[in-house]
Every structure is written in structure tokens, then in C-alpha cells.
Amino acid sequence: MKILVLNAGSSSHKACLFDLSRLAESNQTPNSIWRAALDWTHAEGMVELTATNQEGGKIKAALPITDRAEGIAAMLETLVQGQTQVLRALSEIDVVGHRVVHGGREYVDSVRVNDEVKDAIRRLIPLAPVHNPANLHGLETMERILGHIPQVAVFDTAFHARMAEAASTYPGPYEWLEKGIRRYGFHGISHQYVAQRAAVMMGRDIASLRILTCHLGNGCSLAAVKDGISIDTTMGFTPLDGLMMGSRSGSVDPGILIYLMRQEGYGVDALDTLLNKASGLKGISGISNDMRLVVEAMEAGHKQATLAIDMFIHRLRQEMGAMMASLGGLDAIVFTAGIGENSPLVWQRACHPFEFLGVKLREDELGRAKDDQDIAAADSAVRVLVIHTQEEWAIAQACLSILQPVA
Ligand code: ADP
Fold first, then answer.
1. For the chain, what is the domain count?
2. How confident is the model at residue 28 (pLDDT cuts 50, 70, 90)?
3. Is the pLDDT of residue 26 over 70?
4. Distance between CA 346 and CA 364 in Å, rounded?
5. What mean pLDDT is predicted for residues 290-301?
6. Residue 197 forms part of a structural domain
7. Which residues lie closer than 8 Å to 30 by C-beta, 6 or more apart?
8. Are residues 20 and 139 in the same domain?
9. Cα–Cα distance between 7 and 395 in angstroms, integer?
10. pLDDT band for position 404 (cuts 50, 70, 90)
């Protein structure tokens, strides 16, 4: 089976192709046989197309295209011709899996796309005004290019959709619930994948584990995964809630927003930009949203960079503690995504305060590794795992289980 995975955003499109017939030989999480991306921010009136295949073929080109559908079509052409060709015809693709950001309360699982699903994604646009339109457009464009092949929507919110009301309701007026103003949570595809992978690495059944998953990338969120279900998470109604992030503030006193509106005349768009683009590591350090650059500046003695890192860690620990309280115990902590997979400094500083619970890291020098690794000491009461998130593979697996359900 050949599964195409599409992650359609507002400023980029990323796609990859898995060939399951080539998987049988290895038990490893598979590499895709082709991947491609469109960067719409490259230059005015242009899109940058990059593609690679498993044999080392590469394409990089700036194309005079502004129409998103035309760009997607050009990207798919690299599957069937030129340096990166891996298929004879697009008709060889069996199914397309889409990352869809918002599935509201309705979708607790991935689903095969039909008109009803498309209507739901459209109806949920007010909750994800940037992402859901791009996701819907991706679905419809694939339909036009590939005809009526099966398509599967894999929602970033679905894994959190079983959270209890006490965890998902904001303490505003009760009417908020009726209006759909509640905690949805995001990064669900990643949290679910790494929690399942953690259970495999521990040789345990996920149905009896309490796992704290830390997705720390440009966007950062934690999830409390009990018996395989997300029972709490730090992102909320939007991806702005919770931890301090690259350029997002995370939770702030909502009174600050009222103050800024009243005293400084802030409007909706200015607040949106302030909290999403000019806050977090970038806002405090004044240097960058990129953790590597902020750490470099800290090491060179930069005061604001040092404060930014100290705050990032402080807030991470606070929220880790909150998730542990929701879990009522802890078997494993998982770190994943750009920062979580690569930063020994974050592992060490994040785990340090939990030594009193028996969380103990290995004493040898910890470092980044190609493979998933257990960084806890042998006698640690809690496993601490660094797992490379594989959202695309998780989407491909969702397609497989919908098309070929295990009896
Ligand atoms: P996204 O959320 O956009 O998918 P990523 O998961 O790629 O982002 O994470 C991006 C973040 O990971 C950036 O802040 C980057 O600095 C950080 N990162 C990547 N490599 C390292 C590293 N070696 N050490 C520390 N941080 C890193």
C-alpha cells in the first residue's frame, strides 16, 4: 500500500510517501520513500519547492506560482518525474492522510473523509482560522488531482477529546461550554505516538501506564496520558495556552490583556501578533524564537537570554508538576520535538526538581542520539525517554487501520 501524507499549512505544505510493501523487511519505524515541501514565504510571487527521494535524488526550485492548488500539483509531479521520481503514475497512490488541526469535540479518532467530515472541518474554521481552511483546501485539491481515492483526516485535537469536563472546562460562565469555548489541546498526533512508543520501549501495556509527554518544539505542550488516554494537557482553546514557547507567550494573566486594551489601545490584531509572534523565548531574549540561538547567547552571558531560558524551564517544571498531579503518579516522562529530542540542558533542568519523586537521570554524559533513548538511571523510579516524534508515520498508520481494520 502506498500512503501519501499531507500537512497543509498557511505558509507551507509538507508531504511524504510511505510504501508499506517495502516495510516488511524491517521492523523499524519506516522512512518515507519520498518527501517534498512548498515554502510560500520564500519570495513575493514565488514558491520554493524542495523534494528528495530515498535514492538520494533532489530537487530545489523557485517557481513562479502563487496559487496553492497549482503548487500542490507541482509538488506531486516530483513523485512521477525527474530526479525524485518514485512512482510511474499518481494512480499508484492508495490513500491520502491529512493532518487536520481542529476536529472539535466530534472527532475522538481519525476518520475517512466524506462530505460530512468536510462540512465539520469547515464549520470548525472559527476555532482554527489559519489551519482548518488550509487543511480543507488540501483535501479538496487532492480530490481534484487524484480523483476519488480514500482520504483520511487525522486530527491534532482528537487524542485530547476524551478529557473529562472538569479538566476541559474554563471557569468562565457556563455558557462558554455551550459555545464550544473549552480546552481542546493540540499536538495530539505527537503525544499519542510518543506515549504508545514509550509503552513499547518499556515493554509494558499502555493501558496500565501513567505517562507525561513533553512536546517541546516551536510550539510546546504537555499531556498527561493515563491508561492510553489524554486526561489533561497544557494547550487549550487555542495553541496559545500553557507553556512558554518560541514566540508564543503561553498562559498569561488575562488581566494583562484587559490592561493593554484599556491603557494602550490594543486591538484584536495587535494582541494576536503580540502574543503569538513577539512573546516567549523571542520576546524575552530579544534574540530569536530558536532555542539554539537563545542558549548560545545565554552561554555568552546575555542577560535577557538567560532570563528567557530560566523562565522556559521554570514554567515547564510548573506544568510538569500539574500534569503529574492529574496523573496521580508517574511511570514515564517523555521528551520529544526539536527541543525535547535534542537538549540535554532541558532534560536535566526539567527533571531536577522531581528527584524527590525518584526521577533520576543517568550519570554518564547525556547527548542527542539518532535512536530513541532511555536517559533515566537504572535505579530511577520513573523512566525518562527521549523519543523522536513521527507524526507523518502516525498519520500513515491511521490510514492503514481505517482501510484495513484489524478484525
Ligand atoms: P516545530 O514545532 O515547528 O515542528 P521543531 O519540533 O522542529 O518545531 O522544534 C524547533 C525548536 O527545536 C527550535 O526552538 C530549535 O531551536 C529547537 N532545536 C532544534 N535542535 C536543537 C538542539 N540541538 N538543541 C536545542 N534545541 C534545538
1. 2
2. low
3. no
4. 16
5. 98
6. no
7. 18, 20, 22, 23, 393
8. yes
9. 10
10. confident
Most informative mutation of 14, 190, 221, 291 for ligand 1 (most atoms within 8 A of CB): 291
C-alpha cell at 249: 507567550
Distance between CA atoms of 282 and 262, rounded to whole angstroms? 25
Q: Mean of the pLDDT values across residues 323-334?
A: 98
Distance CA 39, CA 37 (A): 6
Q: What confidence tens digit (pLDDT) does each residue in 185-206 have?
A: 999 999 999 999 999 999 999 9
129 and 65 belong to one structural domain:
yes
Q: Are residues 346 and 223 part of one domain?
A: yes
Task: Give the residue numbers spanning the domain of 264.
Answer: 205-391
Exposure string (b/e) for 321-350, b if CB count within 10 Å is 16 or more?
A: ebbbebbeebbbbbbbbbbbbbbebbbebb
CA of 82 to the centre of ligand 1 (A): 32
**313 pLDDT above the threshold of 60:** yes
Last residue in a domain, options 155, 173, 196 = 155
Handedness of CA 18, 20, 22, 27 (dihedral sign): positive
Per the CB < 8 A criterion, the answer to whether 90 and 146 are in contact is yes
Any domain includes 162: no
For residue 218, give the ligand 1 atom closest to its CA.
2
Confidence (pLDDT) at 407? 57
Contact 153, 128 (CB under 8 A): no
Mutate to test the pocket of ligand 1, among 10, 194, 218 (most ligand atoms within 8 A of CB): 218
CA angle (225 as vertex; 221, 228 as ends), nearest 5: 135
What pLDDT band is residue 42 in, cutting at 50, 70 and 90? confident
> What are the grid coordinates assigned to 43, written together?
519570495
Considering the domain architecture, whether residues 151 and 220 belong to the same structural domain is answered as: no
Q: For residue 23, what pLDDT band results from cuts at 50, 70 and 90?
A: low
- Extended strands (E) in 111-183: 111-112, 151-155
Task: Based on the residue annotation, tell me whether 156 is a catalytic residue of this protein.
Answer: yes
